[in-house]
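Dear colleagues,

As part of the handover before I leave the project, I'm documenting each prediction I ran so the next person doesn't have to rerun anything. This entry is a single chain, and its sequence is reproduced below.
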Amino acid sequence: MDPLLLDKARAYAFSPGMNTQGVVVVHGGAIVAEWYTEGADKDSWAASWSVAKSFTSALIGIAIDDGLIPSVDEPMITYYPDWKGTEREAMTLRDVLQMSSGLDWVEDYDPAAIFESDIIQLVLSEEDQLRYASARPAKVEPGSAWNYSSGDTMLLSGVLEQATGMPTDDYAQQEIFDPIGMEQAEWWRDARGHTLTYCCLDTTSRGFARFGLLYLREGTWGDEQVVPSAWVTESLEPAPQSDGYGYQWWLDQPDGVPDDMFAALGHDGQFIYVIPSLDLVVVRNGTYAKDPGEPIAEPNLFGKYPSDGLVPGKGTVPPQEGWDTAEFLAPIVQSITGT
């Protein structure tokens, strides 16, 4: 890879106002570039925000392969029997994976929308986040419309808890973290012990790169099939209601980026980019000051894990000037393709 072009990507990522903490570039299964801001290194904690959703998807696929969940067509009332006889009764696991549950959910991160936004209410005031997500009323018929919803992904926490008989983060440790060598990983729970499957998986930038490489290798790690290869393929098929979203993975690409790229994307600039045609994984994490206590959102998540730089010296800080994926990735891609 051309070091001058890699330097160009590095200069963009660490330009003033970007608030980049770490970048890892993996090509051919090896780290070819790794950069950190002053005071951070390969062992520094990095935040996930919604990057965690893609890990949750992987766990659903593993649980199906383990025979703990029948299939993606399993009715959600298997896990939420109180929904029987309501408009939510027809919802399937597939609907939830594809963000097409039909539940009424507003995913607005603008603080001005505090009273209308379900995601803000979730992180600010809810001790039992699974209860909040499962109590959302139906808005449209399940499977009929796509709506990005952290509430949908939180429902998968309940599915995995019941299917595996253990907290989702423990299942993740057993089925993903340990097998791929993510030695430093903490997945946050709410005050009632439910893993926050929509967010808040803390690891290192290298840890996120390992997960990206796992999907680049179609679910294999060494000689072990960690995630079923068929699940990886199925996860990367766009939902009928959205050309740009699969099973908790983003599939749309900006202009100038290879059209087979898929990505796990998180708030405040947390990214895993995977480009199979180039045998490439690129991770970018933003500034994160991790709370020193237990990873439990008690009494609420915001107090322990604030976003948007709203609490100085704590939580995550976004790129102040915005983030241009194509501008960042273009020189990395060019360093491989030569064009």
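DSSP finds ten helices and twelve strands in the chain. The first helix runs from residue 3 to 13.

All the best with the project,
I.
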